[in-house]
Amino acid sequence: MRPRVEEVRIQGLGVIDEAVLELSPGFTVVTGETGAGKTMVVTGLGLLFGGRADPARVRPGADRATVEGTLIVATDGKVAQQVHDLGGEVEDGELIISRTVSAEGRSRAWLGGRTVPVGTLTYIADDLVAVHGQMDQQRLLQPGRQRAALDRYAGDDLVKPLRAYEQAYRRHRQVVEELRELTTRARERAQEVDVLRFGLDEIEKADPKVGEDAELREEAERLAHADALRTAATTAHSALLGDPMAGPQIAQDAVSLVGQARAAVEAVRSFDPELAGLADRLAEAGYLISDVATELAAYAESVEADPVRLAAVQERRSLVTGLARKYGEDAAAVLDWARNAATRLAQLDGDDGRIEELTREQDELVARMEELAADLTAIREAAAERFGAAVTAELTALAMPHARVSVAVTRGDGFGPHGVDEVELRLAAHPAAPPLPLGKGASGGELSRVMLAIEVVFAGADPVPTFVFDEVDAGVGGKAAVEIGRRLARLARNAQVIVVTHLPQVAAFADQHLVVEKASDGSVVRSGVVALTQEGRARELSRMLAGLEDSELGRAHAEELLSIALADKNTP
Questions:
Q1: In the chain, helix, strand, coil percent, each to 5?
Q2: CA of 497: how far to CAs of 14, 129, 489, 513, in Å?
Q3: What's 302-335 look like in SS3?
Q4: In the predicted model, is pLDDT for residue 461 greater than 80?
Q5: For burial by CB atoms within 10 Å, which of 118, 119, 173, 260 has the most?
């Protein structure tokens, strides 16, 4: 389903006090007497889709001008998704857009019930409407739009090479970005490599072992206190086992005293099981004390003061501790750092190879893009020739027989997302005039007719669902006016078309006819918009033809116009 504008409500805008426009999905024409406010309809639509807010357009005596539009959109379509992303809502396929302009110049906008910046309406309108009015910034005057429109006109011939080019372009951007990162970080990478290599060399020379720092700390403590340790062991041994050099005096050592205690209870152990148990425990204590005394003697013999070994241990310990301060809290952490550093160094050493690889790929991508861009240029140039001829033919029928439209396809600066081409629509208004960009080569009325011709040619390719034309028929009449009406009707087969006109030949081709009526009550003019019946259309066309609603001749002519238009529209 193509989006379309279903209804527009206008309040306090220019001469319009309040008006409601119910629009046809096909061709709607808006007519009315001079000064009734026809152009305000286009102005209102322009405001609705993000146009410039002019406080001078606010109706005298009103605080603000308000325009509210109801649009029909697909709930699963692109526009609905955009509205949802902005926090708005589309209910049952209806999207409400509103815009107010205060007399002081303040402007506010709402989209799907959500307040949004006015620029958001312009963003949404890109996929909804093209407004062609004398004072509007024309959509197709934008270079990017002209290139995109020509690409759509070129059709399937362009799709495959354009897709291939876009893929190569995206990859080229990725390669360039990666190369930029690798090359701009060359100094930092070199510094990091130096730090890593220095650290790895230092650790490799020291060759620390897991747990070595704790072992060195224990050995240093033992060596530094060797004399005290030996004295303590010797004293303890003497206390437990006695001094064999002390003579046959009464023993006072622990082993002798425990032996005496055991002998005292062994003599009577048979009289009481409890005492027997204590005797056994005394025996065990004697054996244990003897074992400990023996080990103390051996320990005392093993402990020697070794200043040379102590110095070596302290030196090694200082080395390992220094590594821990730089690379980790202990020897195990230092070795972990070394493993990680070796991995990182391999990555950094591989960057040079990666740069060479990416550089080769970049050169290949540039060559590929050049080839594809040349194909795109050739296809666009061929499409431009066909398009220029088609639009020129349309202009001949639109009372511009000497005008010629051409499409200039020129090479831009470097590769872009869609190739190397810049596309510009140009108009030569008469044979002696040089081709100029559309905005400079045509007057307001001519530009509207050029835009109509372009839109008719683009009808099947341009996805914009709604077109609005103001004064598209300026300066023409007779047969040319009939041709304008016929082409607007043709455009309406694929899109919604809204036209403000003063020509009955154009109005006769409409699917719906709205008339802007005015009534004067003193100094205040109020305008309303009325949808005409078939009878009302004949009266309005009669007024437009003869200036008299009840002229029999004018009415007959009007009915003839309606019949001709209906027959033409029914022709495939």
A1: 55, 20, 25
A2: 23, 10, 8, 12
A3: HCCCCHHHHHHHHHHHHHHHHHHHHHCCCHHHHH
A4: no
A5: 118
Give the DSSP H or E segment for 545.
Answer: helix 534-546
Phi-psi region of 299 (alpha: psi -120 to 50; beta: other; left: phi over 0): alpha
Helical packing angle, 156-184 and 143-154, nearest 10°: 130
Q: Is 174's pLDDT higher than 70?
A: yes
CA 429 to chain centre: 42
pLDDT tens digits, residue range 103-120?
A: 888 999 999 989 999 888
Q: Counting beta carbons within 10 angstroms of the beta carbon of residue 537, is it exposed (0 to 12), middle (13 to 18) or buried (19 or more)?
A: buried
Answer whether 293's CB lies under 8 Å from 237's CB.
yes
**Residue 438: both structure tokens together:** 């559309």
Q: What is the mean pLDDT of residues 40-50?
A: 85
3-state secondary structure 357-391: HHHHHHHHHHHHHHHHHHHHHHHHHHHHHHHHHHH
Average pLDDT, the chain: 84
Query: Six-digit token pair at 48?
Result: 């609705």
pLDDT at 319 over 90: no
Question: Three-class SS string for 97-149?
Answer: EEEEEECCCCEEEEECCEEECHHHHHHHHCCCEEEECCCCCCHHHCHHHHHHH
Contact at 8 Å (CB) between 12 and 66? yes
**Position 372 pLDDT exceeds 90:** yes
* Residue 139, C-beta contacts closer than 8 angstroms, at least 6 positions apart: 130, 131, 132, 145, 464
> CA 189, 193, 195: angle at the middle one, nearest 5?
120
Distance, in Å, from the CA atom of 514 to the CA atom of 452, rounded to the nearest integer, reads 21
d(CA 483, CA 396): 10
How many contiguous H segments (helices) and E segments (strands) does the chain have?
Answer: 18, 15
Output the pLDDT for position 256.
Answer: 82
pLDDT at 134 over 70: no
Nearest to 369 by CA among 161, 176, 179, 157: 161
Q: How many CB atoms lie within 10 A of CB 234?
A: 17
CB 46 within 8 A of CB 97: no
Gap between the Cα atoms of 569 and 60, Å rounded: 42
User: Is 90 exceeded by the pLDDT of residue 162?
Assistant: yes
Phi, psi of 304 (to 5 degrees): -135, 140
C-alpha triplet 171, 173, 174: angle, nearest 5°: 65
Q: Give pLDDT, residue 135.
A: 46
How far apart (Å, rounded) are the C-alpha atoms in residues 79 and 101? Answer: 24
Task: Yes or no: say if 151 and 162 are a contact pair by the CB < 8 Å rule.
Answer: yes
Structure tokens at 468: 């609005």
- Residue 522 confidence (pLDDT) above 60: no
